[in-house]
């Protein structure tokens, strides 16, 4: 199994201010076409791990589709992912009509089944993956790795058993918002048990859209890095899902990952607006704390020139023009997600040796 260090370039003595030797990825004042070519070359070596896709739900409404041939009715298919150098795709199990409802567990399981079915029906282009190693294996075989999640925390109800079942079926990320055990005061005692059991299983916590108290408590409690799968910088755009600088800094200090969404509402209408958010998150939280979420096929409007999954090279070209180093870009697109997944896997293995599964009940812990 490939090691993370095989995928991240190491720094060398001499060269530019960032410690890297002068290389073809950073020539000064390069023409736009040449910069785009360099972006393609960099992404060929360090593809995009896209942190959020609404593809499963979008496909439910199509009478027929072929992702390997191409599908104009959606934003994501295999040809466009290859053109955009997408190496891994986190497929959301969220429900567009909202997190509640009596059928939330069944609907989440149906979404998970949809992901598995889509992958099985497109074996030449897609491969189901759960671990960092499986993602690399898929990439080495020329497939896009499809990772199930995030799902909404309401799918658990008050049952840690459901969490374990979802994990056994492939779930890798759970969003901690809108539940009885995550609220404005933060995690309840049962919510803390949920996070500990997620750590034991290797399910990553997503706190996008959570209250500041929930974000702070989850970051402090979790033994694995915490994700924000769809959060940008509130200092640049006051969207409720975007993070203020103090939470960005805390996330970075804890080794977490803020995955900036490519949406006009959260980041702005242009490629430059998205790049501004990426610059800001990098500067406040560090280059190890920033990632990408296309949010394609999730019903949102995307910035100009970032309309579908093929457009990632245009964003990377903009960052190259701003002086991002190859190391920083490799972390942004691929390395940071690999680090987070590896950390979750190693923590889970250690935790499973130390303790048994939790059977805590919300009625026992969260008594008024």
UniProtKB/TrEMBL annotation:
It comes from the Bacteria. It holds the Pfam family Peptidase_M19. Residues 1-32 are annotated as: Disordered. This is Membrane dipeptidase. GO terms for molecular function: metallodipeptidase activity. One of its GO terms (biological process) is proteolysis.
């Amino acid at each position: 199994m490939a090691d993370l260090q095989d995928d991240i370039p190491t720094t060398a003595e001499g060269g530019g201010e960032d410690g890297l030797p002068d290389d073809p990825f950073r020539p000064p004042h390069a023409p736009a076409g040449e910069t785009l070519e360099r972006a393609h070359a960099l992404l060929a070596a360090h593809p995009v791990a896209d942190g959020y896709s609404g593809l499963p739900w979008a496909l439910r409404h199509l009478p027929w589709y072929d992702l390997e041939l191409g599908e104009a009715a959606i934003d994501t298919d295999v040809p466009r992912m290859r053109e955009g150098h997408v190496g891994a795709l986190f497929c959301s199990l969220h429900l567009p009509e909202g997190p509640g409802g009596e059928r939330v567990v069944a609907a989440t399981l149906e979404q998970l089944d949809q992901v598995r079915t889509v992958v099985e029906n497109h074996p030449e282009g897609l491969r189901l993956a759960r671990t960092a190693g499986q993602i690399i294996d898929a990439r080495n075989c020329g497939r896009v790795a499809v990772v199930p999640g995030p799902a909404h925390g309401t799918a658990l109800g008050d049952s840690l058993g459901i969490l374990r079942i979802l994990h056994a079926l492939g779930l890798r990320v759970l969003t901690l918002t809108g539940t009885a055990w995550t609220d404005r005061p933060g995690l309840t005692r049962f919510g803390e048990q949920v996070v500990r059991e997620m750590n034991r299983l290797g399910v990553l916590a997503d706190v996008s859209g959570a209250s500041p108290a929930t974000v702070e408590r989850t970051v402090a409690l979790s033994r694995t890095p915490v994700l924000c799968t769809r959060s940008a910088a509130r200092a640049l755009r006051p969207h409720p899902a975007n993070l203020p600088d103090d939470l960005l800094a805390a996330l970075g200090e804890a080794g977490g990952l803020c995955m900036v969404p490519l949406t006009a509402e959260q980041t702005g209408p242009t490629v430059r607006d998205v790049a501004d958010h990426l610059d800001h998150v990098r500067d406040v939280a560090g280059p190890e704390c920033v990632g990408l979420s296309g949010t394609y096929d999730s019903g949102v409007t995307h910035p100009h020139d970032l309309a579908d999954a093929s457009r990632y090279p245009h964003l990377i070209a903009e960052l190259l023009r701003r002086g991002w180093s190859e190391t920083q870009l490799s972390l942004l697109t691929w390395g940071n997600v690999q680090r987070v997944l590896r950390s979750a896997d190693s923590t889970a293995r250690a935790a499973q040796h130390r303790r048994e599964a939790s059977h805590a009940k919300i009625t026992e812990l969260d008594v008024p």
